């Protein structure tokens, strides 16, 4: 699985970081930064939760 993050769409809400802090971070402008583009099996559930909680639709998952 690969995470796609569209920083042009991100509104900096930070939900993704709260849901999966080891996978997502935010830069100085609060826009999403993906720390782990290919999450481990242990991280998949929290990544799906993060994507579901993103209010802007900036996050997507591509199945390998
Ligand atoms: S939850 Fe969505 S809008 Fe909020 S920081 Fe993360 S990617 Fe951006």
UniProtKB/TrEMBL annotation:
InterPro entries named among the record's database cross-references: 3Fe4S_ferredoxin, Divergent_4Fe-4S_mono-cluster, Fe-S_cluster_ET
Cofactor (UniProt): [3Fe-4S] cluster
Organism: Actinomycetospora cinnamomea
SUPFAM superfamilies: 4Fe-4S ferredoxins
Superkingdom classification of source: Bacteria
GO molecular function, one term: electron transfer activity
UniProt domain Divergent 4Fe-4S mono-cluster: residue ranges: 1-63
Function: Ferredoxins are iron-sulfur proteins that transfer electrons in a wide variety of metabolic reactions.
Record carries keyword Cytoplasm: no
Keywords carried by this UniProt record: 3Fe-4S, Electron transport, Iron, Iron-sulfur, Metal-binding, Transport
Gene3D superfamilies per the UniProt record, alphabetical: 3.30.70.20
UniProt entry tagged with the keyword Glycosyltransferase: no
Protein name (Swiss-Prot/TrEMBL): Ferredoxin
Source lineage: Bacteria, Bacillati, Actinomycetota, Actinomycetes, Pseudonocardiales
């Amino acid at each position: 699985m690969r995470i796609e993050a569209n920083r042009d769409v991100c509104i900096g809400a930070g939900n993704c970081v709260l849901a999966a802090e080891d996978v997502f971070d935010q830069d100085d402008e609060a826009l999403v930064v993906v720390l782990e583009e290919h999450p481990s099996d242990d991280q998949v559930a929290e990544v799906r939760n993060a994507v579901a909680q993103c209010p802007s639709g900036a996050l997507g998952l591509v199945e390998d």
